[in-house]
């Protein structure tokens, strides 16, 4: 045996980092799993190597009084709407796009503007615990690749889509692809550029904005592109009365069936909003293995209806949560989990008190806080076919640490009052970035007090 071979096993032994915290996560739709005083071991590749409970060995990072949660998966964000966040919620979707949104998005095709906006957005989202994000970028290839590079550099897992939109009526001449061949070739070029970044964190995603914004040729070409490249697809689907009926008028069928006809409804296709989907749509989406990005706050402004998340889940549809920045005016996905519960109760109860209580709402619509967090983690990861959303041996360590007793924070645990279920509920409803101490993606600390 040569001396080199003799030392090889030691060198090959991965360095392990140990963290102590109380783990809270939702392995299944109705189950909150709590592991008090757990020690989680992460190897040099960022993979979880071991988890033990009630373990009192010394650790590298002691989060004894904090809660460790799996990283959040935001399945729907419009990156070039970041500067618009918090504004412009007074118009219906079709006018909001032309009045506010396309103008701001077109500014983000300038690399100088993008170079300032993308890092601000990605680092802020990481500070909220969003370890995976599914982005619509701009129509421009260069600034789209810049967004993917920003995710890779700052350490966020991302799907980044160049937005294809070429319809001569439903897009403005100053923010569109000139024709279907441009729409398709730019989308193909964007896939190549993002893949050539060679980042294990970032992937391209085929992104026809929505059916109204695209010609038939572009929809068909992008369906083919997705099938040829094996890249996932995202688009908006049955979002509002206007959008839903536009598609029925144009194709005599719903968005779901039309997208399927264009080859765009595949395993992992992320359909944003979906408020107007019916049972037949749900059956087709479930059969294809596609799913819905549920964006409860945005839907309250733009979708004219509440997405029936519980019905969708019961029909076997994959469901994740999305902020829909800037249609949704809050950056954090924990808030969306809370909103998902709120709007589900409004759907169940109904909203018009002049109607009799027993006909006002839709029975059996409520989501629990556990289900909502499941959507924000395991649900989104499952939709994207990613091995995250849960801390388990063999999965990447994507997680965030929440303090539960910061001065001046509304998030306070009272030992004589709060059990585990209440602590979890408080974390989901009340934690803000000031309560989030550290954030990890694939084992790398990407945000927080001890940022590497
Ligand atoms: N449909 C097409 N584009 C958009 C968008 O930017 N936001 C939302 N919410 N819906 C859309
Ligand atoms: Fe959207």
Structure commentary:
This protein is α/β, with parallel strands linked by helices. It has 15 helices and 17 strands. Strands 3-2-1-4-15-16-17 form a seven-stranded mixed sheet. A four-stranded parallel sheet has the order 5-6-7-9. Strand 12 (270-273), helix 9 and strand 13 form a beta-alpha-beta unit. Guanine is lined by residues 78, 93, 97, 101, 209-210, 236, 239, 298, 302, 324, 327.
Features:
452 residues, alpha/beta, Urease, subunit C, domain 1, TIM Barrel, 2 domains, seven-stranded mixed beta sheet, four-stranded parallel beta sheet, 17 strands, globular, disordered N terminus, binds guanine, binds fe (iii) ion
Task: List the SSEs and their pairings.
Layout: H1 3-12, E1 17-28, E2 31-42, E3 48-52, E4 61-70, E5 72-78, H2 93-107, H3 111-127, E6 130-136, H4 141-154, E7 157-161, E8 163-164, H5 180-196, E9 202-204, E10 207-208, H6 216-229, E11 234-237, H7 241-251, H8 255-261, E12 270-273, H9 279-288, E13 291-294, H10 296-302, H11 309-314, E14 318-321, H12 333-349, H13 357-360, H14 369-384, E15 399-403, H15 420-430, E16 436-441, E17 444-448
Parallel strand pairs: 1-4, 5-6, 6-7, 7-9, 8-10, 11-12, 12-13, 13-14
Antiparallel strand pairs: 1-2, 2-3, 4-15, 15-16, 16-17
The structure holds guanine (GUN) and fe (iii) ion.
């Amino acid at each position: 045996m040569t001396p080199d071979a003799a030392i090889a096993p030691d060198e090959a032994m991965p360095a392990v980092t140990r963290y102590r915290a109380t783990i809270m996560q939702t392995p299944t739709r109705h189950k909150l799993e709590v592991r008090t005083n757990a020690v989680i071991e992460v190897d040099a590749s960022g993979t979880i190597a071991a988890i033990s409970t009630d373990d009192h060995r010394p650790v590298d990072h002691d989060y004894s009084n904090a809660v460790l949660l799996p990283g959040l998966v935001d399945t729907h964000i419009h990156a070039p709407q970041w500067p618009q966040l918090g504004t412009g919620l007074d118009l219906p979707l079709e006018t909001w796009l032309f009045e506010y949104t396309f103008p701001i998005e077109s500014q983000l095709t300038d690399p100088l503007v993008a170079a300032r906006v993308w890092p601000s957005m990605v680092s802020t989202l990481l500070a909220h615990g969003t370890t995976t994000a599914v982005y619509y970028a701009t129509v421009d290839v260069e600034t789209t690749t810049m967004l993917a590079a920003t995710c890779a550099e700052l350490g966020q897992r991302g799907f980044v889509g160049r937005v294809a939109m070429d319809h001569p009526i439903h897009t403005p001449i100053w923010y569109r692809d000139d024709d279907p061949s441009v729409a398709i070739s730019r989308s193909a070029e964007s896939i190549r550029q993002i893949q050539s970044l060679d980042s294990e964190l970032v992937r391209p995603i085929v992104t026809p904005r929505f059916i109204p914004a695209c010609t038939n040729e572009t929809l068909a070409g992008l369906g083919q592109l997705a099938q040829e490249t094996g890249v996932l697809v995202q688009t908006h689907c049955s979002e509002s009365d206007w959008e839903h009926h536009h598609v029925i008028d144009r194709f005599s069928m719903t968005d779901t069936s039309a997208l399927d006809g264009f080859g765009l409804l595949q395993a992992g296709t992320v359909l944003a909003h979906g408020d107007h989907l019916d049972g037949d749509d749900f059956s087709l989406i479930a059969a294809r293995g596609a799913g819905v990005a549920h964006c409860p706050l945005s839907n309250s402004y733009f979708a004219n209806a509440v997405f029936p998340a519980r019905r969708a889940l019961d029909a076997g549809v994959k469901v994740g949560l999305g902020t829909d920045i800037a249609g949704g005016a809050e950056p954090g996905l924990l808030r969306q989990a809370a909103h998902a519960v709120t709007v589900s109760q409004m759907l169940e109860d109904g909203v018009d008190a002049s109607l009799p209580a027993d006909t006002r709402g839709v029975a059996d619509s409520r989501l629990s806080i556990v289900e909502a967090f499941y959507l924000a983690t395991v649900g989104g990861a499952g939709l994207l076919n990613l091995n995250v959303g849960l801390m388990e041996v063999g999965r990447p360590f994507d997680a965030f640490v929440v303090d539960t007793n910061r001065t001046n924070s509304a998030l306070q645990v009272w030992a004589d009052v709060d059990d585990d279920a209440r602590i979890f509920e408080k974390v989901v409803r009340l934690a803000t970035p000031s309560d989030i101490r550290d954030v990890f993606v694939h084992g790398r600390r990407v945000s927080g007090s001890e940022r590497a």
